[in-house]
Fold this sequence. Notes:
Blueprint: H1 11-24, H2 28-36, H3 46-66
Amino acid sequence: VGLFAPKSTPPAIVTTLRGAIGKAVQSEQFTAALANAGQELAYLDEPDFQKFWDIDGKRTDEAVIFIGRQG
Length: 71
């Protein structure tokens, strides 16, 4: 799951959100809720998530082209 904010979001708000989300994902309550839902935590902060997003998007594009469903 990725969280996104509008492009025009002020940097101070983005910083606040990143801090709050980073803190939340470290809580026992959050990790327990994920485990109960059968999910594992793989938290990536913005720079690492951007790298993942770029690689995953490229891989998805290649897969769609490979199966012949270009759009």
